[in-house]
Design a protein that fits this description.
The complex is a heterotrimer of chains A (337), B (318) and C (306).
Chain A lengths: L3 E14 L2 E14 L3 E5 L6 H9 L7 E10 L2 E2 L5 H7 L4 E4 L3 H4 L6 H12 L4 H14 L5 H5 L8 H14 L4 E5 L7 H18 L2 E5 L3 H7 L2 E6 L2 E7 H6 L4 H8 L40 H5 L5 E4 L2 E3 L14 H5 L1
Parallel strand pairs in A: 3-8, 3-9, 6-7, 7-8
Antiparallel strand pairs in A: 1-2, 1-4, 4-5, 9-10, 10-12, 11-12
Chain B lengths: L1 H28 L4 H6 L5 H11 L5 H14 L4 E2 L4 E2 H36 L4 H14 L3 H15 L15 H35 L2 H8 L4 H39 L4 H10 L3 H29 L11
Antiparallel strand pairs in B: 1-2
Helix pairs in contact in B: 1-12, 5-6, 5-8, 5-10, 6-8, 7-8, 7-10, 8-10, 10-11, 10-12, 11-12
Chain C lengths: L16 H15 L1 H7 L1 H18 L1 H4 L32 H37 L1 H15 L3 H12 L3 H28 L2 H8 L4 H38 L10 H10 L5 H29 L6
Helix pairs in contact in C: 3-5, 3-12, 5-6, 5-8, 5-10, 5-11, 6-8, 7-8, 8-10, 10-11, 10-12, 11-12
Classes of the chains: A alpha/beta (337), B mainly alpha (318), C mainly alpha (306).
């Protein structure tokens, strides 16, 4: 087994607002090995993006704060770094790809200027050398006529092209970890596949680890080695991808899988949506966050927080009714009523 | 690019025509007889009649209008009777003084105002932010002519520190020029400074919250670069717009300020002209100022287009 | 579907329905415009100042200890804080406090009136230009551009020279000078509103032009107009003061804050308190209107929510 690159334990990131404390991330744990890809899935507002911002230490300065937990990047405690030290990680060891490529580049500077700026921020080389590195990176990600694109403004490029430029920026610094926050959501379907393929190719070449945030389970099956399911700020299930696919344990994961359209099964079957809405994050913390939408809910679920337990080797789940003593049958209770 | 500038120039023509027309009719509507004003109340009736004919006042309004436009096109703005010289040469002799004062005030207020605005935006909801916001608001709410009076009171009457009247001359040394400029320049700079600070602050807050800034931080760019290079360049368009308005505003402010500090510029000329009912001077000065405004606006528009690569060049911007 | 019953939002049973409803109520209250304004400290300070000045203007005859034009040469140039004359007296021995109170009346009437004149004409022209477009738009906006090319204060100065001084004329002159900027703001807003779906819907079902203008477009541009008008009142106060200060606006002996400053300038060295106090009142009132305008703009702008 390869070495652990990133280890996150019991991460808690809260947002302090006038209306109360919003527990955006409230207990997230996972680890990511070198050269592997981990997926984070969950519905909007489940804390996926806040988790990645916490790792990058990119939270809004006055409202968001990491209140508990550890983030270890190899042997470095990310939480303990000061402002200057974290800068040498961002864009160097960590690269980040955001959801909307069109707004991820500064609109008033040319592509080349932004790329060389980033390279020069981390390496002591001449402008000319930085320029050459940037052109080379653009070529690597399959951008035709890279010299010409260097002199283009972001708005002159298409969405897919912008995302390639951003990936090229990540390539320049040869990062250990790429955090991709819904990298394909804003793109056309055909372009999506190209971008994912590009990421995979880079991973093969450089041995980079990827943290892939998505709400698309199809992408997860295709790309990831491990996967973490998040709900209302918490890790509810965390396992190797094939284990989760073959044997999901948390009722929320079941709901998520049922709500995904499948080409293979008979298409007449209705898609099952999970009823209800996620809880207000200002009110969570005293119960299982999923209890009000869960068909297997008991009194215990309403009064205590379920711990994250390793039920099978490498398969973690946070559910009161899934323990060594008791196991739930998938779909059992809902058929009974 | 050149094409757009040319098109903007063509768009200016109707505006200029309106300006000339408005000036003409407004001055024609001024009460009193210009000929009488020039000659004084003791003048004989036939003298007045003669002068009226000379000035073309006996002709019909449309005729006067046409000949006025023709004169303006030739650069003939008439003659000022209170200064006894052609209006245009009077204006040209005074305009450098006003420009010296207004541009100095504007440049200082731009640097200080934008700096303060950025500082406030990056420290949003802190004591520094509140302090800057309050001072900026005081600035934009200031009746500047009153501020001028108060400064005269403090600095000349009470402490006798700075000269408060007129303009210094280089012959007496650089300090003479500068010391004469400090008070009127400050008074003139107060409103633009407040406006720049407020505009910069709100524009910067918008920009700093944007995706592209977050991405820059994620790329490990130094915070000072993120703010002063990327943030500020993105925040510039509204600042440029306000700069254009302030360019005009400061010119108007000069009318107010120059009167109080007896600064020998356009403002004093206009004040004198209105007080003495010097019709051709009012007409000429007003027209001159309005035309410079139209040109300033065009310049600002062009800057705006240069700054923002996304502006649609086909439709001329906006 | 066994889960179907549980449709309530978060934790309705565990934390009690009341807590949940209470939160929703609180949110709705928080979103009401007036309540938003009330929570906005900046706006409330501004409103307080304006109300104070307005009350002072309305109850001037009750509040003022003397008549504003009551001359008493024996008591000229009394300083600030003299017995019987809180703010002292001016060159003719008139009680400054009384003059400030009565002057506030004139200044506020002129400023608010001028803004009304400017807003009414500007709205009319802006709506027409923005709604009909085409040559009407070009004609109106070219004229507005032309007027806009004159510095505001210069335009007001010349208008006042044309029509003569006096309260009504000053109001009118400042009002006319205000028209182009209002017309621009309104036209810009109309262009934004016109692109909205419901306007096209109105056109499809055959709503008449005038009806469409006044019932649908005008109300939707109102919030912007209110913000702008509040800020323009502040400017109008300064403009009136400046015109009167030059002797073009409200002529002495009528008290207005501007004419008090004119007196103050003439006796700046012998009685500096006259100009000082007069200016402070102008500054405070202008500040009040600017604060209120800022506050309203903040709560109208969805991006600025706290």
């Amino acid at each position: 087994m390869s070495e652990v690159l990133l280890k996150v334990e019991n991460l808690k990131t809260y947002f302090y607002q006038a209306s109360g404390v919003s527990k955006a991330v409230d207990g997230v744990s996972f680890s990511l090995n070198e050269g592997e890809t981990m997926g984070i899935v969950g519905e909007s507002g489940s804390g996926k993006s806040v988790t990645s911002s916490s790792i990058m230490r990119l939270l809004p300065a006055r409202t968001g704060r990491i209140v508990d937990g550890t983030i270890l990047f190899q042997d470095t405690d990310i939480r303990a770094l000061n402002k200057k030290e974290i800068l040498s990680f961002r864009g160097n060891d960590f690269a980040m790809i955001f959801q909307n490529p069109m707004t991820s580049l500064d609109p008033v500077f040319k592509v080349g200027r932004q790329m060389t700026e980033m390279i020069l921020a981390h390496r002591k080389i001449s402008k000319k050398e930085a320029w050459d590195i940037a052109v080379d990176a653009l070529r690597q990600v399959g951008i035709p006529e890279p010299e010409k694109r260097m002199n283009a403004y972001p708005h002159e490029l298409s969405g897919g092209m912008c995302q390639r430029v951003i990936i090229a920026m990540a390539v320049c610094s040869n990062p250990r970890l790429i955090i991709a926050d819904e990298p394909t959501t804003a793109l056309d379907v055909t372009v999506q596949a190209q971008v994912l393929e590009l990421l995979r190719e880079l991973q093969r070449k450089n041995g980079t680890s990827i943290l892939l945030i998505t709400h698309n389970l199809g992408v997860v099956w295709e790309m990831c080695d491990t996967v973490m399911v998040m709900y209302a700020g918490k890790t509810v299930e965390y396992a190797a991808c094939r284990d989760l696919y073959a044997n999901p344990l948390h009722p929320y994961t079941w709901g998520l899988l049922d709500s995904m359209p499948k080409l293979s099964s008979d298409s007449k079957k209705e898609l099952a949506a999970i009823p209800g809405v996620p809880p207000d994050l200002r009110l969570t913390g005293t119960c299982c966050n999923f209890y009000n939408r869960c068909p297997y809910c008991t009194e215990q679920c309403k009064t205590s927080v379920p711990p994250l337990r390793e039920l099978e080797p490498g398969h973690f789940v946070a559910c009161h009714r899934q323990s060594d003593a008791e196991r739930l049958e998938r779909g059992g209770a809902s058929d009974g009523k | 690019m050149l094409k757009i500038i040319i098109r903007r120039c063509i768009q200016m023509v109707p505006t200029l025509l309106v300006v000339v027309t408005l000036t003409f009719f407004l001055t024609r509507m001024l009460p009193g007889d210009p000929a009488l004003a020039i000659l004084g109340p003791e003048a004989e009736a036939d003298e007045i009649e003669l002068l009226r004919q000379e000035m073309g006042l006996d002709r019909s309004l449309p005729e006067q209008y046409v000949s006025y436009i023709a004169d303006v096109c030739k650069g003939d703005f008439g003659t000022s009777y209170s200064y006894h010289q052609p209006v245009l040469s009077l204006i040209i002799s005074r305009i450098p003084n006003t420009l010296l004062l207004t541009l100095t005030a504007l440049i200082f207020s731009l640097i200080l105002g934008v700096g303060a605005g950025v500082l406030a935006a990056t420290r949003q909801n802190t004591v520094i932010d509140y302090l800057i916001s309050v001072i900026a608001l005081l600035g934009v709410s200031m009746p500047v002519f009153w501020l001028g009076l108060m400064l005269i009171l403090q600095f000349s009457v009470e402490m006798n520190l700075l000269p408060v009247m007129g303009m210094g001359s280089m012959e007496k040394g650089l300090w003479d020029v500068i010391s004469h400029m400090i008070l009127p320049g400050f008074v003139l700079a107060v409103i633009p400074m407040g406006t720049f600070a407020r505009t910069t602050r709100s524009s910067m807050i918008d920009v700093l919250g944007s995706d592209s800034i977050r991405c820059l931080r994620a790329r490990g760019i130094r915070e000072s670069r993120v703010i002063w290079i990327h943030g500020l360049k993105n925040a510039l368009p509204p600042i440029v717009t306000v700069f254009g308005l302030q360019l005009a505003g400061t010119f108007a402010g000069a009318i107010v300020t120059e009167g109080i500090f007896s600064w020998p510029g356009m403002g004093t000329v206009i004040n004198t002209a209105i007080n003495n009912r010097d019709y051709s001077l009012i007409q000429g000065a007003v027209l001159f100022i309005a035309i410079s405004f139209v040109f300033c606006n065009m310049l600002v528009d062009v800057c705006y287009m240069l700054l923002n690569p996304k502006v649609d060049f086909e439709n001329g911007g906006h | 579907m066994g889960m179907g019953k549980n449709k309530n939002t978060a934790f309705s049973d565990a934390l009690g329905k009341d807590a949940n409803i209470e939160m929703l109520k609180r949110e709705r209250r928080a979103n009401n415009a007036w309540n938003k304004l009330r929570r906005n400290k900046i706006a409330m300070i501004g409103l307080f100042v304006i109300l104070l000045m307005a009350l002072m203007a309305v109850f001037a005859p009750v509040l003022a200890p003397y008549l504003p034009n009551e001359i008493n040469p024996g008591q000229a140039y009394l300083p600030f804080g003299s017995p019987g004359h809180l703010f002292g007296t001016d060159d003719l021995g008139r009680d400054l406090l009384s003059r400030i109170i009565y002057g506030g009346r004139i200044s506020l009437i002129v400023a608010v009136g001028a803004t009304f004149v400017g807003a009414a004409l500007g709205i009319l022209l802006g709506l027409t230009a923005g709604y009909f477009g085409g040559w009407i738009d070009s004609l109106i906006m070219r004229i507005m551009d032309g007027m806009f090319s004159f510095p505001f204060i210069l335009l007001a100065m010349i208008l006042i020279t044309v029509i003569g001084n006096g309260v009504l004329n000053v109001t009118f002159a400042i009002g006319i000078a205000n028209v182009p900027s209002f017309a621009r703001v309104v036209r810009g807003q109309v262009h934004i509103v016109k692109r909205e779906e419901y306007c096209n819907a109105g056109k499809v079902i055959g709503v008449s032009n005038v009806r469409q203008l006044f019932l649908h477009i005008l109300p939707n541009t109102m919030s912007q107009i209110i913000v702008y008008a509040t800020l323009r009142v502040a400017d109008a106060i300064i403009s009136e003061a400046f015109l009167s200060f030059l002797g073009l606006g409200i002529a002495l002996p009528t008290a207005s804050w501007g004419s008090i400053l004119k007196t103050g300038r003439e006796c700046l060295t012998t009685a500096p308190h006259v100009a000082t106090i007069g200016g402070i009142f102008i500054l405070i009132t202008v500040l009040g209107f600017n604060l209120l305008g800022d506050g309203i703009r903040d709560i109208m702008d969805p991006k600025m929510k706290q």
